What does this fold into?
Amino acid sequence: MALIVHKYGGTSMGSTERIRNVALRVAKWVRAGHQLVVVPSAMSGETNRLLGLARELAPTPTSAAAERELDAIAATGEQVSVGLLALALQAQGLDAVSYAGWQVPIATDSAFTKARIERIDDTRVRADLAAGKVVIITGFQGIDGQGNVTTLGRGGSDTSAVAVAAAMKADECLIYTDVDGVDTTDPRIVPEARRLASISFEEMLEMASLGSKVLQIRSVEFAGKYRVPLRVLSSFTPWDIAIDEEARSGTLITFEEDEKMEQAVVSGIAFNRDEAKITVMGVPDRPGIAYQILGPVADANIDIDMIIQNVSHDGKTDFSFTVHRNDYAKTLDLLKSKVAPATNAAQVLGDPKICKVSIVGIGMRSHVGVASKMFRTLSEEGINIQMISTSEIKTSVVIDEKYMELAVRALHKAFELEQPVPAA
Ligand code: ADP
Ligand code: ASP
Ligand code: MG
It folds into this structure.
């Protein structure tokens, strides 16, 4: 008997018919002798619908008071899902009980709309499992120290599931989604994308942080910190497929670099349309200027991604960086109203129509020329690179948003990702 956590995404929970299908799959695992904790997302489109209603009344909610209410609203989507799934399981003759985050409780900090899980008390869940119940826990939400409902950021149900698996030392966490696993890139952009049978934790961390929303980044971080055995797989295989076969399908996140992986120089391509670029022009090039510009941005709880400082001219320099598009207006406002006057900047310019495209692979460590092949491929397509950032296992570029699909397709082809990796 193993303790298994299943997570089902929005599409997998998208209708009562699909929820019934989830229940049949879960029942199959229970009948095979396993203890199951299931973490579903809201039904597809529901979180967007709820946040859309909120936007009608508060178009740009920036205060903590407003964000608190956004979380109270958005968290209801998952509450409906857990209840429906519990009913569907009961209809299969199983003993099932659902809990909202606060009932477990899943304790988080108070950063509304992007809260972090701090602690999970598994006493209640363990008692239920011992009594033979299937436990269903809401994804995406928790409760802070003051008793407020919080949410974990978009895509946060992945993190709920992995955190529950970590807290309970589950034997495996299976993330069921609407594609066959983690692919070389988003199959919606490149239909030739190929499923990776396994991907190293480091690569998955990069893919997620660079925009592959198949797993929320924090779920990958949790999996790494607590060594949670993690697999991404499809919820659209027939529910009655043999358990052994199902348990081997999809993509396994691995924690040890195995030698076979060295064959693939680039494992995947990620892209992110959610960023915006800001340039502060003509600031004096003196010690402390980066801090003067970026300090207030960080103090406003805005995450900064890529940063470039240009060579100075006549003692002046330009400074560009990217932020999440949701933070674009707030950042631009902060820079224009406070930072520019304090630093004597000549001008603050913004461009929200950018995107970041990245190639990722642990094989890049031992291969030179990977970045230059990326730049050549983009230049052959006539795509101008605005910013570049590299690390040992990734190279990212910022380009005009309108070239995103072209860039991803061209790179996928150039790095021969649609081909199976040749055997050693
Ligand atoms: P869920 O509702 O199951 O959490 P998401 O929409 O959050 O599903 O994540 C799954 C989606 O991630 C896929 O439908 C796919 O479009 C997208 N995706 C992006 N990059 C990848 C990738 N490398 N491999 C697989 N899917 C990816
Ligand atoms: N329902 C939430 C969202 O749409 C959380 C999730 O699906 O993981 O972002
Ligand atoms: Mg998701």
In short: The pocket of adenosine-5'-diphosphate (ligand 1) is lined by residues 9-12, 41, 155, 177-179, 182-183, 185-186, 188, 212-214, 268 (CB under 6 Å). The radius of gyration is 23 Å.
